[in-house]
């Protein structure tokens, strides 16, 4: 994924915590923020699920489409 530069305003205390955490883990400050955002929105869970799944992308998509259709049928009833 391409990275873009941006400016955000964060509490000084959070920035210090991110810098210390990054230094201890040997990662950049931006990686700390990316990981935090991914966890906040649930992307880390999706990555774990995909890593444990033995379904192909097509099989997974078919399963997801079927679940959406089932959900819509239930709402109509």
What would you note in describing this structure?
This protein has 77 residues and is mainly α. It has two domains: 33 residues, no CATH class; 33 residues. 74% of the residues lie in helices and 0% in strands. The protein contains four helices and no strands. Helix 1 crosses helix 2. The radius of gyration is 19 Å and the shape is elongated. It starts with 11 loop residues before the first helix and ends with a helix. The mean pLDDT is 86.
Topology:
Blueprint: H1 12-25, H2 29-41, H3 43-52, H4 57-76
Strand content: under 5%
- What class would the helix/strand composition place it in? mainly alpha
Number of helices: 4
Tally of DSSP β-strands:
0
What distance separates the N and C termini?
42 Å
**Oligomeric composition of the shown chains:** single chain
Uncertain stretches: none
Q: What summary fits the major beta sheet?
A: none
Mean pLDDT: 86
Percent of residues in helices comes to over 70%
Q: What would a concise description of this structure say?
A:
The protein has 77 residues and is an all-alpha fold. The protein is 74% helix and 0% strand.
């Amino acid at each position: 994924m391409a990275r873009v530069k941006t400016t955000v305003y964060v509490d000084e205390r959070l920035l210090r915590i991110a810098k210390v955490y990054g230094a201890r883990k040997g990662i950049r400050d931006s990686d700390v923020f990316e990981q935090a955002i991914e966890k906040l929105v649930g992307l880390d869970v999706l990555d774990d699920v995909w890593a444990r799944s033995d379904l192909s992308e097509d099989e997974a998509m078919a399963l997801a489409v079927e679940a959406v259709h089932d959900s819509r049928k239930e709402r109509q009833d």
